[in-house]
Fold this protein.
Amino acid sequence: MTPTSPSMDAQTVAVRYDGTTILLHWLTALLVLALFTLAVTWGLFERDTRKQLQSLHISLGILLAMVLVVRIAWRTTRGRRLPLAIEGLQGKAARGMHYLLYALLALQVVLGFTWRWAQAESFQFFGLVQLQFATLHRAALDDVLGELHDINGWTIVILAGLHAAVALVHRYVLKDGVLQRMLGGSRA
Ligand code: HEM
Ligand code: HEM
């Protein structure tokens, strides 16, 4: 597919998301990557370091929650919403994937917060604020929330990986303008 292919009109190729949407998209991607990397590597460290990495996971998790709230608010108000890049089923599948990612990210934040709460651990935000809520410590709840947060975390990373792979196929195989829609530049 080329930029002039019938499945992608010229306007779609030329138009990008606005700068704020682009910034929030890449910030989300970076935070998800950092949160996941921390979670799958902290087991390699001894207790004190592990606890610090888990605290960092909470700080970055709180930041992700803030970014998501701003992102969804921006998208539903002033953010530029583009028409589907591709017509037909493929375009609908892409949109479905985007909504699914938003939903799973929101769910992950809820699961993460409630899991931490069930663990009777404090919430701290980069050492600036530390909050300790009344304990909800229940071993069974702790286990279930942990299992769900783990499964959902892996699901997000796998789906986001697929989503990124499709974006790269558009760029390097189909050579169309889909990836450019989410990259900064002067053609906006
Ligand atoms: C997309 C974002 C996130 C991903 C991919 C992610 C992934 C993970 C994974 C894979 C684990 C390890 C699970 C296990 O050991 O069984 C974990 C642990 C945890 N996550 Fe997340 N997480 C994310 C966001 C959050 C958020 C927003 C919070 C809430 C502030 C949070 C709170 C926690 C807690 C409390 C733990 C357990 C830490 C411990 O073992 O003490 N996570 N996360
Ligand atoms: C954890 C990582 C990521 C998440 C959670 C994520 C999530 C999303 C979401 C929710 C949208 C929909 C935007 C909207 O219309 O509101 C989107 C769009 C987009 N993403 Fe990602 N993304 C991630 C990583 C990536 C990566 C690594 C790439 C590129 C290699 C990428 C390329 C794109 C492109 C090109 C679009 C616009 C698609 C279009 O206009 O049809 N994303 N992403």
Remarks:
- The domain at 10-182 is CATH 1.20.950 (Fumarate Reductase Cytochrome B subunit).
- The first strand starts at residue 123 and ends at 125.
- The mean pLDDT is 89.
